[in-house]
Amino acid sequence: MATATQHFDAVVIGAGFSGMYMLKSLRDRLGLKVRVYEAGGTVGGTWYWNRYPGARCDSDSYIYCFTFDKQLLQEWEWSERYPEQPEILRYLEHVAKRHDLKRDIQFNTRVTGGEFDEANNLWTVHTATGETVTARYVIAAVGCLSDTNLPPFKGIENFKGKWYHTSRFPHEGVDFTGKRVAVVGTGATAVQAIPEIAQQAKQLTVFQRTANYCVPARNGKVDPERVKARKADYDAIVQRIRESFFGQEHYFIPKSVLETTPEEREREFDRMWDEGGFAYWLSNYQDMFFDQKANDLCADYLKRKIRDTVKDPAVAERLIPKGYAYGTKRQPLDTNYFETFNKSNVRLVDAATDGAIEEITEHGIRAGGKEYEADIIVFATGFDAMTGALKALHLKGRGGRTLDQEWVDGPHTYLGIAVAGFPNLFAITGPQSPSVLSNMPVSIEQHVEWITDCIEAMRKAGQTTIEAKPDAQQEWVEHVNEVVSGTLMTATNSWYMSANIQGKPRAFLPYLGPEGVGGYRKKCDEVAAKGYEGFALA
Ligand code: N01
Question: pTM, whole model, 2 decimals?
Fold first, then answer.
């Protein structure tokens, strides 16, 4: 085994939103010696890797940012309601510069493994560049949606054209002009990319496995008066989103949709539809996620919108989601997605009606026995969500156990922050925390601050290890599964349910607590206030 060349108080893995703030917090608040390893060439994480056409934020920009830097909240001007990827990356570069973060981040360096040394209570961490270092704490800031899922399509090696995965798009971009392009997938990524690609491509063929309920983002410039009012109200906004259900200023209508008249609910549906963004998903009637009949009423409105938009009724029918409840897959936000299928250069290949993808050929994609030729294939096939990137770190806890071994039937964590048997390892927005069911920066800041407080308390008390207790972990896993079992989420084949990847054990990955982000924060604060209840400290 390689000898460690340096020792750090903490190693942080990843330099996206979470790794950046973790570094800032441990280094500048606690004075720790921190090394961040980042596989990408600069900061940004998700916003470094996902450069596909149309990539933009799906949360409103005024809350999709760091709130720890109050001055920056006042100074930074977002150009739009949902800024594009390059603008978010510019913002993160600005934060890195402003807080002098890069001097402690080693870029182009992937962490490939690590072991907990039980004799010395230290982690040894290895990188692909051949470095080995030790650290008291390891913080995985690897993101929830960073481990690319490229399904093992038969024949992909035979394809004579070019192919790309949306999450590993070339930095110089791809020119689709005059090309025949195939897009595989119709998730939130594809829904952003398809209208953009259709504008350039000679022909676009979209391969849909599951139709999606999309609602308009309604992106655009934000009224300057509104921007000013928000800036004046930021303290209250931050407080509200921290205590809210989804880390957003969205609140359920405290009423059953089944108790409304058709006129009343149509008015409400129109209002949410016109507002755009996540309003229809997260500000709808409170029983939408629990009651199939209630859900059907909300879904029917969206189905009507598809029929109204798509001119060819046969295409509209194939674009209408079937067989799962609305909102149980991540809501894609669109700009002219359904309108794109009215263009003469765009065609839909639907697995249910035209046949599933059988193989990639030299000249395109074969589905349902028919070959669809393409010069470029864009795979918008998503991620091994939440657990993939953590497992890929190949960390070994007590007794040399790996997360692969511990998580054979899905993730087992305590609060989504820690794993029994892996002392001093923290995950930011790990599985079984609200994470992907929240506005990510809100959950990231909460975890970073909680972890920093925890390490500070340990140092004050002269403690060197913290570790989730197996029984507390088991209780948390049961709680996570119990609360979601009362919803419609578990019946759907979504990546939330680990169902997007063949062979991945079916388990609900995030935490959908009864009081959402706000209730979860309270729970974490209580755990800390009770001397880190459920953790063993030594
Ligand atoms: O990935 P997805 P994504 N054969 O897994 C299909 C976040 N995000 O990159 O639905 C054929 O949702 C798959 O079909 P199915 C957001 O949280 C954020 O779009 O599994 N098709 C699906 O249509 C989002 O949810 C933002 O049946 C296959 C698609 O590929 C998450 O990232 C923007 C297949 C994958 O959809 C992931 O979104 C974009 C196969 N073997 C995304 N395997 C912002 O906020 C998969 N598919 C900016």
Answer: 0.98
